[in-house]
Amino acid sequence: MRLIRALVILGLLLVPLMGRAANLPDAELAKLVTGLAGDGFDDKIAAIDALGTSGDARAVAILKALTDGKLAASDDKQMLIEGAGGKFTDAVTGAPVTPGAEPERIHVNNRLRGLIDGALSRLTLYSADPGDRLSAATEALHHPSLGAVPSLDKALATEQDKGVAAALKLARAAGLLQSPDAAVRLAAVDELAASTDSEVRGLLGELVGGHESDPKVIAAAKTALAKIERQLAYIEIGINLFQGLSLGSVLLLAAMGLAVTFGVMGVINMAHGEMIMLGAYTTFVVQEIFRAFLPAGLFDLYLVVSVPAAFLVAGAVGVALERTIIRFLYGRPLETLLATWGISLMLQQLVRSIFGAPNKEVANPSWMTGGFQILGGFTVTWNRLVIIAFGFVVLGALVLVLRRTNLGLHMRAVTQNRKMAAIMGIPTDKVDALTFGLGSGIAGMAGVALSQIGNVSPNLGTIYIIDSFMVVVFGGVGSLVGTLAGAMGLGVVNKFLEPFAGAVLGKILVLVAIIIFIQFRPRGLFALKGRSVEA
Amino acid sequence: MMRRTPLLTGSGWLVFLAAMLVAAVLIPVLATLPPPDSMFRLPAYLVPLFGKYLCYAILALALDLIWGYAGILSLGHGAFFALGGYAMGMYLMRQIGTRGVYGDPILPDFMVFLNWRELPFAWWGFHNFAYAAFMALAVPGALAALFGWFAFRSRVTGVYLSIITQAMTYALLLAFFRNDMGFGGNNGLTDFKEILGYEVQAPSTRLGLYVITAVALGLSFLVCRFVVTTRFGRLLLALRDAESRVRFIGYSTTGAKLFVFVLSALLCGLAGALYVPQVGIINPSEFQPGNSIEVAIWVAVGGRGTLVGAILGALVVNFVKTWLTGAAPELWLFALGALFIVVTLAMPNGILGLVAQAKQWRRTPTAPVAETVHD
Fold it and tell me: Could you state, in order of their start, the residue ranges of all structural domains in chain B?
């Protein structure tokens, strides 16, 4: 019994291997290839077709050579592929050949080219790489034909990968839509209803729009279409939500530092955007140092080093500014606004003088490039995902600092009652400097994230300063929960408005909405309550 | 009963008239009468430049009225200025007529370029100068009234007001960059030909515009001066220093602030409308939030809450800007930034404050200078 079971399992395991990698014997392949050099069109067509269904890995190279005009026949009907530098190899065995006379190249016309492309994509259905097979299946779906159904069936029988199998089934169903049998078409429509591919939607739309005569099939196509539309709508919402979260996390990162300097300390720091910019330039410098002095294998780590480096650089600049300028302006918010605006102009010009005005290029490390596809052909990129995660990590760290450390305790004490805090022995001056440094440092870390998704230029910060203030004011000054809600809310609303209002108009609408919102809740969504509010 | 403050003291009138004489008579005379190669002859290119400065001075005056006296730091004044400028620019565009590149008698070039068939509603009537002049004041005034009513009614004050006025300016900047808005998009409005039948580029027209601007500045100053010397002006000061107390005494703070905010916006519109024909272009970059903040520094450099200081500051800073951006452009932003910091830290009352300090110091050398109290 056990032996039989083992044999069955072994057999099952072997089936896909046989289906995919079963190469033809050399002699048989050679016969087919020789057919390509046949005199008549029909010979060539038959040979191409046969190669396409052969599933032989070598056939791909041969057919490609044929379309490129690199396939040639020697005088003794040996088929050769012309490689780089005019060297010839045997098409079947791959052995190098030095032909006696100049071999005769085989020409193809456009009709043959179409056939070759079809054969190639069918061959790719048996490729060893699931990605190749998936793109071949998708290709077959986008150019459905009844003729492709048998080879799709064959591929489907051996396919192990679920994703590829689903794509193959769709392509097969799309091909069957051309079947003369109404029952087959009906079954195909039912199968297609599970898809969310826009191509399928187009196919069904054509069916409903007059390509179909059978009323049953039309009705089925209509229901299928409605189902697909509904699913696409859900996916659209999901995509908007993700992009909104992505924008929201960028806003969160940009605004969090401001939530500390403006929200906790009450300092209007118009140079906040420039702290972000300094963080981005620190990333650039760290990247250049890694490129210049460290082995290439370590390059991917530069971003990890950039985060603390940017925090320290921007934080140090923040502490310096607080000690030399801002501390003289406490209690004079409008003057602080003007002075910090002056600082921002000087920092911008300073960076422009050092690094030059053109944008600097900051590369994504390899673990942040690319992404993965989800339903509906939407790609989730790794850098966006990492930034969303980074935003929440920084927020968590900030909450920990404020709630669980001595510095945080002192900060909150100084915010609530400066005099009392001083009497209790808290060095308020030092706390002020460190708080401002913390806010600036967080802005610097935001700069690291922003360098990954946009240009690094001296006016990077000016793009974000108004948005940051909007987030903080909208969420409620002095409330980190408010900042989180404000950032995510604005990000998501912005992205949902974009499809029908356009990016710019959407942004204008959001700004107008905030301006109106502030009229009704001047202290923001999560307003602090109590006596300290009016102070 | 308190004695009413006179509009200007005797010596004050003397200074005012002297300044007007220099600005509105002497400079035009120097620009026309001396022979072209004489050392007294004012080069022609300086006339529109001075005109530009005087427009900025009106703008600074408008900001000083609400910032210096009512304590409202609006960062939206650049927007009111630009809106007035756009209204005038639209009139000038309509005057181009068939002289445009496409020669369309009704549509400005950029609309023909965008394949528009009809004049948008917003452009109706702008071929008429009186209507355009009215709109140059009415649009900023109406926006200020709407915005101010919402903001002051819900007691949005201090930096919150500054931030949302900045957001308003930014939203307008984004809006005017759009081609769909129908105001020329990125390129704005330019290539003007004539104003009221006079050629815009002609030296005589420029001189005329300059004189009108100088007179407008003088009148604006008198209007502002009138407002701040009345009982209402005292109320504004009280609002600036202790708003809650004023409200508790029984004054309607909303109405008072709204009035002065709208008046200030009207002056901005006037300045913008005078600015555009002299400069020859208006585009969305006038809405840049930075421009509005720069106005605040002109006022602060001259001295807040003095009106004269605002004019002085606008002229001085812009002279320096013109000179420095020509001589060492990369230094200008450093200088401007440093100016922001130095003025707020070291000279909170601006140039006029320094003058007053020096006077007081000379009179009573030992007495310390009273520190200004800020809320």
Answer: 18-30+42-289
